[in-house]
Automatic annotation (TrEMBL):
Domain of life: Bacteria
Record-stated family: Belongs to the AHA1 family.
Annotated Activator of Hsp90 ATPase homologue 1/2-like C-terminal domain residues: 29-128
Designated name of the protein: Activator of Hsp90 ATPase homologue 1/2-like C-terminal domain-containing protein
A Pfam family reported for this protein in Swiss-Prot or TrEMBL: AHSA1
Residues forming coiled coils: none
Length: 168
């Protein structure tokens, strides 16, 4: 794996003992375009979590909004609830989803590029590390969506092995 968008996430411990999975990416487009793509339900449905039924879910990313992530198949994934804890367009979006806190921080990176830092905080190490390859692949799909291309199918086995080696 090469390129800035393929950097593996970092797993760290917060002061309160919870774990933080951190992804850093630079996207070659304006911050406002990235913001729109991570907060618009129609855009999310094209690159974010494929398990979610975006038409049935309630995903309005304004501060204090209640969120509902409804799965396509409730036998595989139950509906997850959450709340937007912080929203400062187009700089910061933070929301709870089930036991996790997701924080999307966007910064203009000069020349029209945008730096995205995504942190996912949880107390459950196994869940964070098991989901790292899937989140990595979603961020690569976000890159493709922003550039108007189709991402190649992710090699989740290769990513899983890379993350297992990194987090052991």
């Amino acid at each position: 794996m090469t390129g800035a968008h393929d950097k593996l996430a970092i797993l760290d411990e917060a002061q309160d003992g919870s774990l933080v999975l951190r992804f850093d990416r630079t996207y070659p487009c304006p911050q406002t375009k990235v913001w729109h793509t991570i907060t618009d339900t129609n855009e999310l449905s094209r690159w974010f979590d494929p398990w979610i039924d975006y038409e049935a879910s309630s995903l309005h990313f304004t501060e204090g909004a209640r969120l509902s992530f409804v799965a396509h198949d409730s036998h595989i994934l139950h509906t997850q609830s959450g709340e937007v804890t912080r929203a400062d367009p187009p700089h910061l979006l933070e929301f709870a989803r089930a036991s996790q806190l997701l924080r999307w921080q966007l910064t203009a990176d000069g020349g029209g590029a945008c730096q995205l830092t995504l942190t996912i905080t949880d107390d459950w190490r196994t869940g964070l590390t098991a989901n790292a390859p899937r989140v990595h692949a979603m961020l690569d799909a976000l890159r493709a969506r922003l550039s108007g291309t189709r991402p190649p199918p992710p090699d989740l086995d290769k990513l899983r092995r890379a993350y297992e080696h990194t987090f052991r």
